[in-house]
Amino acid sequence: MSRKIEYQFVHDVHDIEEIVSFQETIWGRATGTGLPHLVASIYNGGSVIGAYDNQQLVGFCYGFPGFKDGKNMLVSHMMAVNPLYRDQGIGEQLKYKQKEWAKSYGYEKIVWTFDPLESRNAYLNLSKLGGYVQTYICSYYGDLNDEINQGLPADRLFLEWDLTQNTIEYQSTAQEITKLVDWEGEIPLIRPVVRDIPLDESYFLIAVPANIHVIKKENRELAMLWRYTHREIFQRLFSRGYVVM
């Protein structure tokens, strides 16, 4: 029987140090958020939430206050789960804990970015949590040199999670949604295939590789092809008013 995971809001400096060390095990030292920034955020409208298995830190999420277009929003900047504890719903619960906290503090929206090539993140953010995307940002972080992102432009989708209304859900009446980006080849080294069709339908499907990290390791040029294919397609769709959900 799996143990019950407990979720706690982190305030103590010692616990924050543990969060900093945990980040290094996931991303290395180059990408994490340092202790001074986490402390300052907690004292000025942000939050750090830890997930614990018998007092052992197994995941966390961190958000800081933001303001844009006349709305207060919490910028959910980082979240990670110990690889040994994935697929247990911990990331989803961390987000819901963050949502409860944000609503109680008067935030109207939670926003964050994620890599469009990370299918697991997309499934959580869009299908489970019900966020939506209408903005694509090229090289959001410039050129990251960590083990996960090295060699690829750090493009990101900007996700919005509205706290003032119910989750947005799409309702397609079409029997089959058109695949605007499909794939071909042998799994896992698949290639994107863009179909030359007019953008005049209500819904499109865009293929995402199931494990982009294998592609990055085995064929960097193929990973780059996926990156630039998504960049071109998403920018075209967003310029026409489409929303990813």
TrEMBL record:
<dbReference type="InterPro" id="IPR016181">
    <property type="entry name" value="Acyl_CoA_acyltransferase"/>
</dbReference>
<feature type="domain" description="N-acetyltransferase">
    <location>
        <begin position="5"/>
        <end position="155"/>
    </location>
</feature>
<protein>
    <submittedName>
        <fullName>GNAT family N-acetyltransferase</fullName>
    </submittedName>
</protein>
<dbReference type="InterPro" id="IPR038764">
    <property type="entry name" value="GNAT_N_AcTrfase_prd"/>
</dbReference>
<dbReference type="GO" id="GO:0016747">
    <property type="term" value="F:acyltransferase activity, transferring groups other than amino-acyl groups"/>
</dbReference>
<dbReference type="InterPro" id="IPR000182">
    <property type="entry name" value="GNAT_dom"/>
</dbReference>
<dbReference type="Pfam" id="PF00583">
    <property type="entry name" value="Acetyltransf_1"/>
</dbReference>
<keyword id="KW-0808">Transferase</keyword>
